[in-house]
Amino acid sequence: MHLDVRIPLGLLFLILGLILVCFGFMSDPAIYAQHSLGRNVNLLWGSIFAVFGVIVLLISRRGKS
Amino acid sequence: MKSAFLPLFLAATGADGSVKLHLAVVDYLILSIYFAFVIGIGWVLRKYLKTSADFFESGRSLPAWVCALGFIGANLGAQEVIGMAASGAKYGIATSHFYWIGAIPAMVFVGVFMMPFYYGSRARSVPEYLKLRFDEKTRAFNALSFAVMTVFSSGISMHALALLLNAITGLDYNLCIVGSSLIVLVYIYTGGLTSAIYNEVLQFFLIVLGLLPLVLLGLQDVGGWDGLMKHLQTYSVAHGMPGAWSHSWAQMGDAKANPMGVEWFGLAMGLGFVLSFGYWCTDFLVIQRAMAAKDMASARRTPLLAAIPKMMFPALVILPGMLAIGLAQKGGGLQLPLSANGTPDYNMVVPAMLAQYFPNGMLGIGLTALMASFMSGMAGNVTAFNTVFTYDIYQSYLKKDSTDAHLVKVGRITTIVGLLLSIACAYTARQFNNIMDMLQLVFGFVNAPLFAIFLLGMFWRRTTGHGAFFGLLIGTLSAMVFHGLTLPVGETAWIKGGWMGAHWFFTSSMAQNFWMAICAFVGCFLATAGISLATAANKTDDQLRGLVYSLTEKIRDHDTPWYGRPAVLGGLVLAAVFVLNLIFW
């Protein structure tokens, strides 16, 4: 039985997502006005990364049981 | 709390107009976490690795969806991400032909028709299939040319990306080369092919999810799809080719009416048939991923499942180039830097968009996606190289009675040697750009006719070993002669062609390439068929069972639900890609 690739995949996206979300809360809003058309992409896309990570981990758990 | 990630630098276009990405601590943190995962996967997988089949073929144990993502991941090198965006800017939506008439039909063909022979035969590699089907010399020719080519293409892409990273982030060129090689070495050395494929799965999602917001922000900025089309129309009128950037087929009636400089027949036959089928159906780099599948059904489904995300890729890799043109046309924002000859530097599309739209944080993700594509391309080459060298060169000619444990050892040493050779090629490319151009040209000659012998070998039992080998040589020779006699308009005769005296001229070197492939294919096809008829069959029907269509029992998949049957899946994929061609006609 191999390592289930969904575990590192889910974990990586969850961790990266959480970092982006934290950074999104802490960073200066001016950087978003300058770059991403005023959207806090770190917060937004970080949440998507984290949710994707959690879904992948859940699927992997379900696959095991 | 802000200080945790300080100092904060903003990514921007440098004062001199060149693109500069200013990385902050958070970006380095993201990059480091990714590297830790990549190495960690190899480390965890090492304990599952016991035999040479585990190291080179993942023990033929992986599910179809994992192989499918590896199948496209290995092909999703940095050159694809950077290069397709550049072509999107240069040629517009017509670049999608590389996917919608190029890759996708070929992927369906390999899944439905060819995989039963690759997976069903006892072959462990594409050259080994050639040995079983034809003879030793055909295998040797393919194994040697493939091994040399993988090392060179890995080295050349290594050089290209190190150069780019150095230019946009200031990271040291040597550090980029040595650092990325070391990481790839560690995860392949420890976990073999499984580790490479698992990492390709991670890389696939990182590239897709990392670059998607870039496209979304660019689209919003340019005024949505309608805004983009409006600006591209203005741009194409200004370049004397109205509609060329926003239509994929409408301008293909005449080579002078589109920026690719090709017409529909050369495009459909050269790219759509010969080159794409030649790559996706015979290149061991991608076939190896499907052959790692756990059973025949999964192996056949691998390229078909891979085709589904692949057909969406133009939105991810070509659209940024079109957006760069639209945004520059709109004005007030993104501008491409100029290259030395004063034209826009199209290779800078992705870096310029990263600098424009990603603040620190997402910038780290974007850069990680670029690094991921860099490493997946390299790992694809290295795993294919170590397998072909170990099985088809070392075990076949150097030490025939090798034990299994010895083969694993050889595979690991070959991984190190392959990477060292790639590094040597990267530095050679840095010193002598022309030698690399020359080599790529030679590989083009060798590769162009290859699909002809597979097609004949798999579907015509009368094809003989002599027919295949000499057909391949004649096909290669046809490509050389064609190149020697033709030249793109405005080029000087030598590496671009015409070195035997230019007799025919093409609107662009792309058109010349497509027609060269057609010529090589036809030359090889006719020669192989002719020589096969003139020579005695070198294999009995028994030896050819499982290798040739008419002598292989048809696979019955009546007990598979309809949506899982390769023929149905392939049909659906082709229907979808047909609709895409119509929508963007």
What do these coordinates show?
The complex is a heterodimer of chains A (65) and B (585). In chain A, helix 1 (6-26) packs antiparallel against helix 3. Chain A is built from 3 helices and no strands. Chain A is elongated. Chain A has one domain (6-64). By secondary structure, chain A is an all-alpha fold. Chain B is built from 21 helices and 4 strands. In chain B, a hairpin with a 5-residue loop joins strand 1 and strand 2. In chain B, 70% of the residues lie in helices and 2% in strands. In chain B, the strands form 2 sheets. Chain B has a two-stranded antiparallel sheet. In chain B, strands 3-4 form a two-stranded parallel ribbon. The radius of gyration of chain B is 24 Å and the shape is globular. Chain B is mainly α. Chain B has helices at 25-45, 52-57, 64-73, 78-91, 97-120, 126-133, 136-169, 173-222, 224-238, 264-282, 284-291, 296-330, 349-357, 362-398, 404-431, 433-447, 450-459, 465-485, 509-534, 541-544, 566-583, and strands spanning 12-13, 19-20, 486-488, 504-506. The interface between A and B is large, with 32 and 40 residues.
Secondary-structure blueprint:
The complex is a heterodimer of chains A (65) and B (585).
Chain A: H1 6-26, H2 30-34, H3 41-64
Helix pairs in contact in A: 1-3
Chain B: E1 12-13, E2 19-20, H1 25-45, H2 52-57, H3 64-73, H4 78-91, H5 97-120, H6 126-133, H7 136-169, H8 173-222, H9 224-238, H10 264-282, H11 284-291, H12 296-330, H13 349-357, H14 362-398, H15 404-431, H16 433-447, H17 450-459, H18 465-485, E3 486-488, E4 504-506, H19 509-534, H20 541-544, H21 566-583
Helix pairs in contact in B: 1-8, 1-14, 3-8, 3-11, 3-12, 4-12, 4-14, 5-10, 5-12, 5-21, 6-7, 7-8, 7-14, 7-15, 7-16, 7-18, 8-9, 8-12, 8-14, 8-15, 9-12, 10-17, 10-19, 11-14, 12-21, 14-15, 15-16, 16-18, 17-18, 17-19, 18-19
